[in-house]
Amino acid sequence: MEKYVCKTCGVQYPPAAEPPESCFICSDERQHVPAGGPAWTTLEAMREEGTYRNALTREEAGLYGIVTQPSFGIGQTAYLVCDNGFNTLWDCITYLDAETITAIERLGGIQAIAMSHPHYYSTQAEWAETFGAVLHIHEDDRAWVARPGEHVRFWSGETCRLSDGVTLHRLGGHFRGAAVLHWSEGAEGAGVMLSGDVIQVVADRRWVSFMYSYPNLIPLPGSTVARIAEQVRPLPFERLYNAFHRVVRADANAAVQRSAQRYIQALQGELFDT
Ligand SMILES: O=c1ccn([C@@H]2O[C@H](COP(=O)(O)O)[C@@H](O)[C@H]2O)c(=O)[nH]1
Asked: Where in this chain does the record put each Metallo-beta-lactamase domain (predicted)?
């Protein structure tokens, strides 16, 4: 029996004799199945190949980025937030090896794992089991968990406090249970938001955007974007990190507010006349 991993999104499935016929994450209209159909590997095969390694980078005091090189699956970055002795892994990546485990153990291990949305679930069960961490997922996204188990804690409502400085906020939009992480101690106490791509940092780093599907370019309703901006407004955060190493470095809450206004104006035909 093997725990097959979808090569397109990096999500791991429960033990089975044969790979699944399709990946239910990629078959959804927010992702895509490659033209050649689904393809599969396993975490063990990836380790044996020796192709991959994880780069762990210090982003700022108490915050580390972890990304697989060369890129695998969607290619997202996971973050380790070290908040006064309580470490949270924000989002997850598929590849996990002994070198990564040692490096993270040196930083104090992982006490909690929290996910923005299903596209980054990857091998979250392996990470939770390896580090003895509780895996926090909003209950509205329960149906997207390929490998449920004792390690998962489904949270409900709009917020979930993980440590003194770390709180999850359900924003919805990209997925019903889509969440962001607010770290009040980040950016030297000015606050940091980790957003996955529930709030997406765009090419011009002074702006963000919001989508139902990024690869298939399906936007969100203006009312949803307005609600997301209102939920975020009271939170103090100077910096915002997305899942692809893009950062709004200064005045990030204001960037979210003006970007939401611009997005809604564009949807309403008030931003340009082309
Ligand atoms: O800016 C982006 C972000 C993501 N994608 C692609 O979308 C899918 C789903 O990933 P999410 O990041 O969770 O939306 C994946 O295939 C990404 O490569 C994109 O095209 N542009």
From this structure: 75-245
